[in-house]
Amino acid sequence: xxxxxxxGGTAEAAARRPPHVAMLxxxxxxxxxxxxxxxxxxxxxHGVTATLITFASTASATQRAFLASLPPGISSLSLPPVDLxxxxxxxxxxxxxxxxxxxxxxxxALGLELSGQRFLWVVRSxxxxxxxxxxxxxxxxxxxxxxxxxxGFVERTKGVGxxxxxxxxxxxxxxxxxxGCFLVHCGWNSVLESLVHGVPMVAWPLFAEQRxxxxxxxxxxxxxxxxxxxxxxxxxxxxxxxxxxGPGKGAEVRAKVATLQKAAIEGLLEGGAAMAALDxxxxxxxxxxxx
Length: 291
Known about the structure:
Elements: E1 2-3, E2 6-7, H1 8-16, E3 20-24, H2 29-46, E4 49-55, H3 61-68, E5 74-79, H4 100-115, E6 119-123, H5 153-156, E7 161-165, H6 170-175, E8 182-184, H7 188-196, E9 201-203, H8 210-221, E10 224-226, H9 233-245, H10 249-267, H11 273-286
Parallel strand pairs: 3-4, 4-5, 6-7, 8-9, 9-10
Antiparallel strand pairs: 1-2
Helix pairs in contact: 4-9, 9-10
């Protein structure tokens, strides 16, 4: 027997097939990890399978290893690079980073040194030659990033600083008891990861909605101290010292983040706001009601 061109057996098989969701990952490892965690929760809680769609142009060894470690029911698909061979000879989509990027790296390095605080810095080589995405979205730097740091910085700070080229497991670092502050670009994934681990922030927004997030965190919520727009080494050092040990604004930020961490953890518990929101979305996708 057939109905609407679909045999009864085929329809029954389709009905038994678990719901499947495709997730298009914005380039960058920091975007992949949260979506993978969402896929895991959907699979464990609602039996939803998922495909994570990434871009071949930003693939890396760490990304491939991460995707291979995902549990059954979560697959990945890599989109090939876009063929640009048919563009006119005078066409250009290249965006070059200015020398400002290297200057800011120097100011950040000297600011960390000046702060007198111990630090872990994941250093990436700036895109001073070539397209922005040549380095910005990749987990692996194209050149030795330590070569772009101020002369003598590596040697002077080897007793207090740990320099990690290209990439580090951010959530594991944030979860460590020794982490007392997070200098963050204010991407919302990183902000949420910092709050759920109770780590106060120094806000250094780069572009897009990150500036709005920085305002919200520093002036609204009170969970961060923002680096001034001029980003001089003295300003960076002062912001880091304030969040780490300051008795005024820094103390207020640390207390606020502790309160937000408690709320975040409660939201992830059974019956919490975050889990309830996830259940609501999943029920819309699956057509089932969650008790």
